[in-house]
Every structure is written in C-alpha cells, then in structure tokens.
Amino acid sequence: MRPVRTSVVTAAAAVAALTAVTGCADKSDAKGAGSGDAIQVTATDDSCKLSKTEFPAGHVKFDVENKGSKVTEVYLLFPDDRIVAERENIGPGLKQQLTAEIKAGSYEVACKPGMKGDGIRQKVTVTGGTAVKRNPQLDTAVAEYRKYAQEQADETLPKVKVFTDAVRAGDVDAAKKAFAPSRLGWERTEPVAESFGDIDPKTDTREDGLEKGQKWTGWHRLEKSLWVDNKIGDEEKGLATELDKDLTDWQKRVGTAEITPTSMANGAKELLDEVATGKITGEEDRYSHTDLSDFKGNVEGAQKAYELLKPVAAKNDPALATELDKQFAALNTLLDKYRTDKNSYDFTAYDKVGESDRKQLSDTVNALAEPLSKLAAAVAK
User: What percent of the chain has pLDDT over 90?
Assistant: First the structure.
C-alpha cells in the first residue's frame, strides 16, 4: 500500500497516455539521458530540484539525493498521474538511482517528503528521437510478466469473494480466515495495481494513510471491524460489495498497464520497499497480524520479476545475478521459519514475532533490497 493518490484515470486519458508509454517495439537505437548523463534530483522538505527538465527519450537515469529531514519518495508520472517509475523510502541524507525507459512526451517528477500527499512537482519534457533498442529476451520477459499479473488478478477475485461473501453473511470467523488469502495476488503484483493511481486508495489504504475528506474503504477498513470490533454491520456488508467492485475494476485494467523491463525491475524493488515500510513494522495488517502472508506475497512478486529478467541481467552483470540469487534464497529460507507447511500461507501471527526476530527479518530484507535496486540498470545496459 502506498500513500494515497487522488487523481482518477478516465478512459480517454488512458487512451491518450498510450501514445506516450514507456517501452516500444521499434528496434532503432537510442542513447537517452541515461547513457552516462544522469539527471540529478535533489529533494528537500520543501523543494524538488532537477538538473534538467528536458531530455531525450530512451533509458533515463535519475540520481536522487534526499537533503531533507523526512523520508521521501520520487515518482515519474504521466500527465494523468499514472506511475511510470518510482523510488520509495529514501531516508534523509541518502542517495538512490532510478532507471526508466521513457518515450517522448510530457511528464512530471514528484518528490514526496514524508511520503504523503501529491508531492512537490516539476514538469519535464522528454523529446523525440529514436526508440530504445531492446533485447528480444526482454520483450519475452515483459509478455510473461504481463501474463503473470493478469493471472494473479484473475485468481484473486474468487478468493476475495470468499472473504466478502463471509462478510455479507455476517460470519466473522469465516471472514477472518479468508482475509489473508484474499490479498496474495494483489501483494504479488502491487506495483501494477498501484500504477493506475485510483484503485489502491479505495482498496488498500490504512487508516493513517487517509487524505482529508477521504472515505475509508477496502481491506483494512474491514480488517478493523473484524479484529477490533469483532462484528459486522450493514456498513461493512456494503463495503464488502464495494471491494468486489473495485477489485473487478483492477482485474479488467491489468491488461492496459504500462510494463517495460525497467518498470519490472523497479517494481521488484518497490515490493521490497513495501515490506520494509509496512510489513516489518507490523503497520500493514495491524489488526489481524497477518503481515507475514503479505510479506511472502511481496517477495514472490519481486522474485518473479527478477527471474524473468535474469537471463539478460546475468549476462550484463553476472555478479549482481549471483548476489540476488543468494539473497532471495536467504530471505525465503528465513520466512519458512514462520510456517509449518512450505506450501501454505498460514504464517505465525506477527504480534508473536519478537523484536530480535523482526530485526533479523529487516536485515535480510535490506540485504536483498540493496542489490535489487541495481537490477533496472543491469537490464538497461
């Protein structure tokens, strides 16, 4: 779950945006701004400065430095607020690099101190030119990942219906049992779902992530009713039906998501950021304490993107691939300690996981996140 985004993507806007998407089948070559001339992004608590606001299409690198006092995140956005690329959880004094594959068009860069709100924005123009020359293996990876994202959405809806049917029936125990399984497909492909901008705020926002005047709906609103109030009323039954509707909308729109090799790589890193900022702290599923199930879903989604990109990444940067293999294995082995059946997603309740064990999980996530942040650059070589 990311901070709330307020814009709504209309059908017309989505069609317009398709004319300026990242990624292209054209095989002519392009250098872009990322061929040794990274764009410097300096974020503070009240500013977002770029070294240039006009640059050529292609593989573009952004070197981000947070000189503020708050944790920040940086987004490259379409005009309709859909996400092209992002880097989250950049602490004060830290630097991160973001690599994106971008076509000509108008975009915005947003820095979000405190990781809330619409952010401090700068308009940027990506000028025309030739398209990125891409390895056919990466086109195959994108096609397979698109298929995977759609399968996850398709498989999620029946599981969500088990959950929402139990809510509508007023069966608290059955709803509690179905809650975590209903979220797995979403957690595996969260960057794709979040790229639309308007779906995540309705389905996966926590209470402390609400914008002023926003109605609280979705999984976590129902989670609180089930575990804190231990009851289901007419309002909750209506919210269950809303959740069905919103997730059906997500399922129908997955096929229109803009997916490129670099967005897959960046999305894998975003999933680890989701773990670091929500699951490790216990904030995500704070009432049900089913965080480790979501945690595993995030890791599986990140690993799927990596495995599809690995043939090219391993060729371009063998040492990085070796390190990623090692760190994914270590994290999965550690997670297995918290379930008795490796084929099950029935994990230890997170409120039963002690501080030392949480630190071990955090350290292992960080050990994977650091090399994973380099995957986009590896596939863009």
Answer: 74
